[in-house]
Design brief:
With about 400 residues, the chain is an alpha/beta fold. Helix content is about 40%, strand content about 15%. The protein folds into 2 domains: about 190 residues, Rossmann fold (3-Layer(aba) Sandwich), CATH 3.40.50; about 200 residues, Rossmann fold, CATH 3.40.50. It is built from 14 helices and 13 strands. The protein has a 7-stranded parallel beta sheet with strand order 3-2-1-4-5-6-7, sandwiched between helices. Strands 10-9-8-11-12-13 form a 6-stranded parallel beta sheet, with helices on both faces. α5 links the parallel β5 and β6. About 5% of the residues have low confidence.
């Protein structure tokens, strides 16, 4: 049995693919998988870490705003469509599984043309453009939230239907079960953390979030006095400690007990700033089970893969949706259900962030309510349900 996984551009569309693949291997250990993604996203590294083969395909992303790059998109999609035939003919999959990334469009249409069963998964509350473009090709569509089923049709023509029918199934979002095994004491040793101080885990997503990274840098002098910080900046976005120090001095921040109004023109050397003791920065965290186990509060974007992990692990969270994106819909859902502290990006400054964290550290009843509610926002059996759907399609 061979299953083609397609997704990429960010880690959010890849995590569900790998979670389902691991679940299928439990019952079908001889199953073979191939992940198809972009050349520059984190998906190649993620596939390698899970022992799954990877191949890149040309992909055209349609931007829902004016961009000259949109003029190139049709040509990139055509190139990806031709490459997809070659990939499918070489791998000969029994099924194709996609999670709504733009990279899936040419490959899923090629699979449909070759009469290969297709399963689509809609993670976010709002449907992705890629999934809308591919819904005709799908043999089965799975969705995270019940109301998302209304966003897809079961067929076309005079029999056009806008209700779930047999084609659409509510499953929740796949989750990497290995994230449950983290032990807090061992995690604190792994990250060299203190046991007597709370820990903030900062996640900008698989590709990082410039706003969140900058926010932490600016808040760091005061923030590191109340929490320890594990900060995943995203690949290629590591900020050297010297740059953090210089930025702080230019803003007149306290680092080692002396205020430097305006800051010196040249960086200082030969000292170890106290702020470094409570700040741990990584481009990419391989051991996310330990990172979650160590954390008392999580600061994150509102990508559905991350929200799925926060829901399954019932983590106390501050969520900052990416502006003008599907993440704002996810954030509205969390806010409506009192499942997290949701803050619009333009409203969040370092002083507000520090105030929110202080509040969560001392408002224990609020914290328990948020953790309980985030655990209820979606079903938690998605790995099993989607695996059963795929296995049934391939017979």
């Amino acid at each position: 049995m061979k299953i083609l996984l397609v997704g990429g551009g960010s880690g959010g569309s890849v995590s569900p693919l790998l979670a389902v693949a691991k679940h299928i291997l439990k019952t079908s250990p001889k199953a073979e998988f191939l992940l198809v993604g972009t050349k520059n996203g984190p998906e190649q590294m993620m596939a390698k870490n899970d022992g799954i083969n990877f191949v890149a395909v040309t992909a055209g992303k349609w931007r829902r705003y004016f961009s000259l790059l949109n003029f190139l998109t049709p040509f990139l999609i055509i190139a990806g469509f031709l490459q997809s035939f070659k990939i499918i003919n070489n791998f000969k999959p029994n099924c194709v599984f996609g999670t709504g990334s733009f990279v899936q469009v040419p490959l899923i249409w090629a699979a449909w043309f070759l009469k290969i069963p297709v399963v689509l998964h809609q993670q976010d509350a709002a449907p992705s453009l890629a999934n809308k473009l591919c819904e005709l090709c799908a043999s089965k569509i799975t969705v995270t939230f019940p109301h998302s089923a209304q966003n897809f049709s079961t067929n076309l023509g005079i029999f056009y239907k806008k209700h779930p029918g047999d084609k659409i199934a509510v499953t929740g979002n796949p989750f990497r079960e290995e994230l449950r095994v983290g032990d807090k004491t061992e995690a604190q040793k792994f990250f060299n953390l203190r046991a007597d101080m709370p820990t903030l885990l900062v996640l900008g997503g698989g590709t990082g979030a410039e706003f969140i990274n900058n926010l932490i840098m600016e808040a760091l002098p005061q923030l590191s006095k109340i929490v320890q910080i594990i900060h995943s900046t995203g690949p290629g976005k590591f900020t050297p400690l010297e740059a953090v120090i210089n930025r702080g001095m230019k803003k007149g921040c306290y680092f080692w007990g002396g205020k430097q109004p305006g800051g010196p023109k040249e960086p200082l050397t030969g000292f170890k700033p106290k702020v470094a003791d409570n700040y741990h920065q990584f481009e990419f965290i391989d051991n996310m089970a330990a990172a979650y186990a160590a954390s008392d509060i999580v600061l994150s974007r509102a990508g559905l893969s991350t929200l799925t992990e926060l829901s399954n692990l019932r983590k106390l969270s501050i969520i900052v949706p990416m502006p003008d994106s599907h993440q704002e819909v996810n954030g509205m859902l969390l806010s409506k259900l009192d499942a997290a502290i949701v803050v619009r990006q333009k409203k969040l400054v370092p002083e507000n962030l520090i105030g929110l964290i202080r509040k969560l550290l001392f408002a224990h009843e609020l914290g328990e309510t948020l953790k309980h509610n985030i655990g209820q926002i979606m079903p938690h059996e998605a790995n099993e349900k989607i695996s059963e759907i795929i296995l049934k399609l391939v017979g």
